[in-house]
Specification:
Layout lengths: L1 H9 L5 H9 L5 E5 L6 H17 L3 E5 L6 H8 L7 E6 H10 L11 E16 L8 H10 L5 E4 L5 H13 L4 E4 L3 H10 L4 E5 L4 H6 L3 E5 L25 E9 L4 H15 L2 H7 L5 E2 L4 H22 L5
Parallel strand pairs: 1-2, 1-3, 5-6, 5-7
Antiparallel strand pairs: 3-9, 4-7, 4-8, 4-9, 4-10
Helix pairs in contact: 2-10, 3-10, 5-12, 7-12
Length: about 325
């Protein structure tokens, strides 16, 4: 140990000591923060990822659900954690592309306070209704909303989530007035939708898929440019009369800023092996979720493009939050 400390004092830390830390990492369980309650779309992606990363890293990766404020609470928790590789964030398009424009003041910098690790998965947002509403299509929804402005309530996983903003984009494109009801996660929103407390919901496909397949919920459309392969009969919003409408939810892993390069690369390699594995793709594919992957640099560039794209959408919708 004395000789190692001596070498660390003589050689550049980034070269030698960084290599030593990468060789010994991880030496204890890793926390993967999900900034939403259990059971929602982010949780559905995070849990198989954590399970399979545990196998890759030979150390337990524990899901830590910290919901609230559209993902802000969980994201801020990781931003303020030590950059030692033991606190990671299962980030979303909401926390890291929508919120920077949607919120007038965020407690974290979506770019400056994080180290991008890997883009994990993407999925369309589904528009679903309780079958008792007798709304059978997007055309029906628009016509009913125009007959009684403000009478229909749409739920989302919370302010600033993909469902919320897709709903706002829908309102603008269709020129209708829907009332937004934010929840603390997808699961409680789906529960109220099933119970008839709200009429419809905008949410990533995987969180409602089982209820659509069982007939408890009816899907009207998906927000992607192309139809979802798992639900080929569900039209896109563009096909339903809202020209060029496209909005996709995504999930990626971030660590706190200033994470040593060696650890960031090690985490990217482990995550890449999971994302491109058959078990991971087989777990998420039937839910309408596409595994993504790529380099850290590609993820960073992707995030910048997404911030720009969603920023324009937020400004066009007029949606803002304190």
């Amino acid at each position: 140990m004395k000789s190692v400390r001596t070498l660390c004092g003589l050689l550049p830390a980034a070269i030698f000591c960084g290599a030593i830390s990468a060789q010994t990492y991880p030496a204890k369980p890793i926390r993967l923060v999900v900034p939403f309650p259990p059971g929602g779309p982010t949780d559905i992606v995070a849990r198989p990822l954590a399970q399979m990363l545990t196998d890759q890293l030979k150390q337990q990766v524990i899901v830590d659900n910290r919901g609230g404020a559209g993902g802000v609470i969980g994201a801020d928790n990781v931003a303020k954690s030590a950059p030692d590789g033991y606190s990671l964030l299962m980030a979303t398009v909401g926390t890291h592309a929508i919120n920077p424009t949607l919120y007038k003041k965020l407690p974290y910098d979506a770019v400056g306070d994080f180290t991008p690790i890997d883009l994990v998965a993407a999925a369309p947002v589904a528009v679903v209704v309780n079958p008792t509403t007798s709304i059978g299509s997007i055309r029906d929804l628009i016509e009913r909303a125009k007959r009684a402005p403000g009478s229909l309530n749409y739920g989302s996983a919370g302010n600033g989530t993909p469902g919320h903003l897709t709903g706002e984009m829908f309102k603008s494109a269709a020129q209708v007035d829907l009332r937004h009801v934010p929840y603390k996660g997808s699961a409680p929103a789906v529960t109220d939708l099933l119970g008839g407390q709200i009429e419809l919901m905008f949410d990533p496909l995987q969180s409602v898929m089982a209820h659509v397949q069982s007939g408890k919920l009816k899907i009207l459309a998906v927000s992607s440019a192309k139809r979802a392969s798992v639900l080929p009969n569900a039209p896109t919003l563009a096909e339903s009369g809202l020209k060029d409408f496209e909005a996709t939810a995504w999930w990626g892993v971030f660590a706190p800023a200033r994470l040593p390069e060696a650890l960031a690369n090690q985490l990217n390699s482990a995550t890449e092996r999971v994302v491109h594995s058959a078990p991971f793709q087989e777990r998420l594919g039937p839910l309408g979720v596409q595994a993504m992957g790529g380099s850290r640099a590609e993820f960073a560039q992707f995030q910048k493009r997404e911030i720009e794209k969603w920023g324009k959408a937020v400004r066009a919708s007029g949606a803002t939050l304190d």
